[in-house]
Amino acid sequence: MNKSQKFLLLFIGLCMMAIVGLVAFNVLMPKTEVKPDEVRVMERSVQEEVVEDAKLNVVEKEYVNVYFIGKNEHNEEVYKAVKREYNKDVDGSKIRFAVNALVRGPKPDEKQRGVYTEVPMDAKVINITEQSDKIIVNLNSAFVTGGGTESLYKRLYQLIKTAKLNSNLPVYLYIDGQRADVVGGEGIMLSQPLSNSSLDN
């Protein structure tokens, strides 16, 4: 064996020793462990963010009451407050939504439960003007036409109760753009703003 062969064998031996040493070092050295708590904290954080996002997307349901007529448990005729789901962003103010719902009348399922209205089918909301100190509900003349005196009293009370329940401001009734201090062919006196005593004459 000549000198160059000896040198080559020595070099190979040194390389093998270095490789064995590196392998042994990796095996014997303790690895950095990921603590289970750290994983849980990260997972928990994600879940909390999802919950918070869900809370932001939940829209609280609101309701308004609209007064129709029905029977109580003693079969007596009473004014019935019917709940209607309301969305401020879609429906505007509560009184606007409530008066429009009143004029449209009971829904089919409400009718099946014996709820009805004295508001004529051809009654329409012309406009509802909301000012800082009062609200003007302007209806067409069909609202005060036909049905007789008793029917007119009932529909006026339906409007009064619905308006008062859904507004803290004074509410005035106008018919075809004119303030309605006297309504119907019978000349019913209506004191304004609307209140539970508006028809006490």
Structural class of the secondary structure composition?
alpha+beta
DSSP helical segment count:
6
Q: State the total count of DSSP E strands.
A: 8
Distance between the termini: 136 Å
Taking the sheet with the most strands, its summary is: 4 strands, mixed
Quick rundown:
This protein has helices at residues 3-28, 36-57, 88-91, 94-104, 108-112, 148-165; strands at residues 62-71, 77-86, 125-130, 135-139, 171-175, 178-179, 182-183, 188-189.
Report on the structure:
- The protein is α+β, with helices and mostly antiparallel strands.
- The protein has a domain at about 60-190.
- It is about 45% helix and about 20% strand.
- The chain contains 6 helices and 8 strands, in the order H-H-E-E-H-H-H-E-E-H-E-E-E-E.
- It has helices spanning about 5-30, 35-55, 90, 95-105, 110, 150-165; strands at about 60-70, 75-85, 125-130, 135-140, 170-175, 180, 180-185, 190.
- Strands 3-4-5-6 form a 4-stranded mixed beta sheet, covered by helices on one side. A two-stranded antiparallel sheet has the order 1-2.
- Strand 3 (about 125-130) and strand 4 form a beta hairpin.
- Helix 4 (about 95-105) runs antiparallel to helix 6 (about 150-165).
- The protein is rod-shaped.
Write the layout of secondary structure elements.
Layout: H1 3-28, H2 36-57, E1 62-71, E2 77-86, H3 88-91, H4 94-104, H5 108-112, E3 125-130, E4 135-139, H6 148-165, E5 171-175, E6 178-179, E7 182-183, E8 188-189
Parallel strand pairs: 4-5
Antiparallel strand pairs: 1-2, 3-4, 5-6, 7-8
